[in-house]
Each structure stands twice: as C-alpha cells, then as structure tokens.
C-alpha cells in the first residue's frame, strides 16, 4: 500500500546523529530526493524526483521506460536516493537501495496519482485518474521499486549570523543498515 503524504516532514535533530528509526521516519515523511545511479562512463547520473513510500518500506519512483533511470536498472540494480529535507536548516539522508522495474500499469497510475498529490500538497481526486492513466500509457511509464538496505545521514548545521561561527559544530556519521534497531538507552 502506498503511504499518504505526511502532514509534517520529520525534523532531524541538530545536536546528534539520527537514530535508525528516525532515519526511516525522515524518509517516510519527505517527498523529494536526488535519484542517483552509476553510469558506464563519466560520473554518476542524478535527477530530482518525487518518491512514494510504501507500508513495506519500499520507495517507489515513476519514470518513463525509455529514460536512463529505467534502462540502467536492468544492468545494475544499485541506486542511491538522497532524500532532501524540506525545511531549513537543510539536511539530507542518503538511502542505498536495490532497485527493480515494475511494468504494472495500474501501479504506475497509482504512483503517478500519489506523486501529483505530493506536488500539489493534496491528494488527486479519482476524477483525475483517467487523465493520469492516459499520460502513463502515452509516456510508457514504469515504476522503479527501491528496497533500502542502508542509510547515511548528515546533520543540519547552519549559522543564522556570522557571530555564531564559534558555535558551528560537525560530527561524523556512518552507514547504518535500513532495518537496524535503535541502540538501548543509557
């Protein structure tokens, strides 16, 4: 089942690294990411996309079958989604995922409907479904199913005034398995 748009995006803590459960909540409550994949030549390919989380932890991305995102999945199913914070101070969460293509037309329409809702901030009504279905057919839409296996977080660090430079701190984060449990409280 596709999850609805969260009323509020999760706000990352500014004084510590995110816990594994907070990383999953960050991903579940945001809506845009930089979708990245390896190219045979040159550097990685990246594009900003909307994604739709599911109740099983997958992240779904709609694309046209003829685009590079879809073509590369058939030869290399490793992708990265750099989930973008929607509030300042800006943070991000890198999600590493195994990806597969799904050509199910009904799923493609459902994902496109959900994306439209995220774009506008409110769900698209069923009256729009025939238009979205026609667009999905015309554009040859498919769904990229991303199954996260790890995350990397960076904290939101920002100065609001130049005299705060002595208060600016950073720390090292790390790659954490997607399904990791939170550490026990001290």
Automatic annotation (TrEMBL):
Name of a matching Pfam family: PNPOx_N
SUPFAM superfamilies tied to this protein: FMN-binding split barrel
Keywords attached to this entry: Oxidoreductase
Domain Pyridoxamine 5'-phosphate oxidase N-terminal: 20-147
Gene3D superfamilies, per the entry: Electron Transport, Fmn-binding Protein, Chain A
PANTHER family: HEME OXYGENASE HI_0854-RELATED
Name of the molecule in the record: Pyridoxamine 5'-phosphate oxidase
Lineage: Bacteria, Bacillati, Actinomycetota, Actinomycetes, Mycobacteriales
């Amino acid at each position: 089942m596709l999850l609805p748009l969260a009323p509020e995006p999760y706000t990352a803590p500014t004084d510590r690294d995110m816990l594994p459960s907070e990383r999953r909540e960050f991903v579940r409550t945001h809506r845009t990411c930089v979708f990245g994949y390896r190219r045979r030549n040159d550097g990685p390919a990246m594009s900003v996309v909307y994604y739709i989380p599911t109740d099983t932890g997958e992240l779904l991305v709609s694309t046209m079958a003829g685009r590079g995102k879809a073509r590369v999945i058939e030869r290399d199913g490793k992708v990265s989604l750099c989930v973008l914070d929607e509030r300042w101070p800006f943070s991000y969460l890198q999600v590493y995922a195994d990806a597969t293509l799904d050509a199910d037309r009904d799923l493609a329409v459902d994902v496109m409907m959900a994306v439209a809702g995220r774009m506008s901030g409110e769900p698209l009504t069923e009256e729009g479904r025939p238009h979205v279905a026609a667009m999905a057919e015309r554009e040859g839409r498919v769904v990229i199913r991303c199954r996260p296996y790890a995350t990397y977080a960076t904290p939101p660090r920002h100065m609001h005034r130049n005299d705060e430079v002595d208060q600016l701190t950073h720390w090292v984060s790390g790659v954490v398995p997607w399904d990791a449990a939170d550490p026990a409280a001290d």
